[in-house]
Design goal:
Layout lengths: L1 E2 L9 H4 L9 H12 L6 H14 L4 H12 L6 H13 L1 E6 L8 E5 L39 H10 L2 E10 L4 E2 L1 H10 L9 E8 L2 E6 L8 H14 L3 E6 L2 E4 L1 H4 L4 H11 L9 H10 L1 H4 L6 E5 L9 H13 L2 E6 L12 H6 L5 E4 L3 H9 L8 H8 L1
Parallel strand pairs: 1-2, 3-9, 7-8, 7-10, 10-11, 11-12
Antiparallel strand pairs: 2-3, 4-6, 5-6, 8-9
Helix pairs in contact: 3-4, 6-8, 6-15, 11-13
Length: about 400
C-alpha cells in the first residue's frame, strides 16, 4: 500500500474551520485526509456524513466506526484492502504501510503499545544476534538484567531542564505582566466602583514535548538496555515524553514505560518490541512515524533525540528525507550515536554527511553518563551540528 506523505489543504469550510469542531471529532477528519493522501476520492459531504454516522452509532465499538466509514466514505471494491489497512493503521495503531519516495518498495510494520492488551503479550525469551546492520528482519523478545537506580538525579532534574515555550494561555501575576482588563473591571464592579490594585497577567510557560527514538537493531545491542532505562526515567519525569523503538519495525512503547517500577516497565517494553537485534531500516521507520498523523504530532515543536549509530543499510535517501521532515517539525533535532564515543570518530559516511546539515546536534551516545547531561542541556542554545563538526575536522 503506497500513499504520499504530503498533506493536502482542506477544501471545505468545515474542514478549514477545524477549530470549531469538537476535539473528539478531529481523528475522523484526519482519517479522511489520510484517505485523500492515498488517492481515495472523499468529498467534504462524505466527511460530514461520516461524523454524523459515528454520532448516531454511539459509537459502542471500533466496529461501529468501521461500518460508518464504509457506508459514508464508500471505498471502491478494488481498493477495499487498502482502505481496511489504512483504517487499522490509523485507528488501531498497528498495520503495515509503504511510504512513498524510497528506493525500495518494502513494508514497515507499525505497532502502537496502546493497542496491545496485557494478556496478548508474548512470553519473554533470550535472543542473540550479530552486531552488524543487515537487510534481514529478525523477530524476537528480550529480558533485561536488573540494574541499580542510577537515573534518579536525571529524573528529578528533567522537568525543570526541558526547553520551554510560551503558551497561548494566560496566568495571573503580581509583577512583570500586562493589565488584565476583564478581571480588573470585574473587581471594580464588585467593589462598588472603587478602583482596586490593577490585576496583571502573563503568558504561561510550558515545557516542550520530548520525543526519543531508539534504534534496537543488532549493531545497537550493547546500548538498547541503557537507552530504555533512560527513556523510562524521562517518561516518569516528563508527562509529554514519547518513546518509539525502530529497527525493521516501528513500535511505540510509551504506555509500557509509564509503569512506575522500572523492571516491570522494561519487561513490558521488551514484550512489545518484536525486532530486537535485527536489521536496520532507519529511513522507512522514521517515514512511517511521520506518515501517521497522531504519531507525527508528537514531533511538532518537540526536542527530538534519535539514539542510533546511523548505519543505514542500502541507500540513505529515505533516511535523509525523514530527517529533513523531522527537522522541519521539531524544535531541536539531535542524533546521539555511540560511535562518537571514539575520539577518532568523524561523520564521514554518506548517510551522516547527508543529514548533518539538518541536525542541531550530533553527540556522543555511548552511555547514560554522557546522554543524561546532554538531555538536561537541551534548553541551552548550541551551534548547528554541521558547524561543530566542520570546526573539528
Amino acid at each position: 500500500m503506497t500513499f504520499s506523505l504530503r498533506s493536502k489543504p482542506a477544501s471545505h469550510p468545515r474542514e478549514r474551520g477545524e477549530e470549531t469542531l469538537p476535539r473528539a471529532a478531529a481523528p475522523f477528519l484526519h482519517f479522511a485526509r489520510l484517505l485523500r493522501a492515498d488517492g481515495f476520492v472523499v468529498a467534504p459531504e462524505q466527511v460530514s456524513a461520516f461524523m454524523a454516522g459515528v454520532t448516531l452509532l454511539g459509537p459502542r465499538s471500533m466496529g461501529d466506526i468501521r461500518e460508518a466509514a464504509l457506508a459514508t466514505l464508500a471505498p471502491p471494491p478494488d481498493r477495499r484492502a487498502a482502505f481496511e489497512a489504512l483504517f487499522r493503521v490509523f485507528f488501531h495503531g498497528e498495520g503495515t504501510i509503504t511510504v512513498e519516495g524510497g528506493e525500495e518498495d518494502e513494508e514497515t510494520v507499525v505497532k502502537d503499545d496502546a493497542a496491545v492488551r496485557e494478556e496478548e503479550m508474548p512470553v519473554l525469551r533470550d535472543e542473540e544476534s550479530g552486531a552488524a546492520a543487515s537487510a534481514l528482519e529478525q523477530l524476537g523478545t528480550r529480558t533485561f538484567v536488573s540494574d541499580a537506580a542510577r537515573l534518579d538525579a536525571f529524573q528529578r532534574a528533567l522537568p525543570a531542564a526541558l526547553p520551554q515555550r510560551r503558551s497561548f494561555r494566560y496566568v495571573r501575576t503580581h509583577a512583570g505582566g500586562r493589565l488584565d482588563l476583564r478581571r480588573s473591571l470585574r473587581a471594580a464592579v464588585a467593589a462598588d466602583g472603587d478602583v482596586p490594585a490593577p490585576m496583571l497577567r502573563r503568558r504561561q510557560t510550558v515545557a516542550r514535548p520530548l520525543l526519543i527514538l531508539i534504534d534496537v537493531s543488532g549493531s545497537m545491542k550493547e546500548h538498547t538496555q541503557d537507552y530504555l532505562r533512560l527513556a523510562h526515567a524521562a517518561v516518569q519525569a516528563a508527562p509529554r515524553a514519547e518513546i518509539f523503538t525502530f529497527g525493521t519495525r516501528l513500535t511505540r512503547v510509551t504506555a509500557a514505560l509509564r509503569i512506575r517500577d522500572a523492571e516491570q516497565a522494561l519487561a513490558r517494553a521488551a514484550a512489545l518490541v518484536d525486532d530486537w537485534d535485527g536489521g536496520t531500516r532507519i529511513g522507512p521507520a522514521l517515514l512511517a512515524l511521520l506518515s501517521i498523523p497522531r504519531f507525527a504530532a508528537f514531533a511538532r515543536g518537540a526536542a527530538v533525540i534519535v539514539l542510533s549509530d546511523g548505519l543505514e543499510r542500502g541507500g540513505h535517501a529515505e533516511m535523509e528525507l525523514a530527517m529533513r521532515r523531522l527537522s522541519a517539525r521539531a524544535f531541536r533535532l539531535s542524533l546521539a550515536t555511540p560511535l562518537a564515543g571514539d575520539p577518532r570518530f568523524a561523520p564521514r559516511t554518506a548517510a551522516l554527511q547527508a543529514i548533518l546539515p539538518v541536525l542541531d546536534d550530533l553527540v556522543d551516545g555511548s552511555s547514560v553518563a554522557v546522554l543524561a547531561p546532554f538531555i538536561l542541556s537541551l534548553a541551552r542554545p548550541a551551534p548547528a551540528a554541521a558547524t561543530v563538526w566542520r570546526r573539528i575536522a
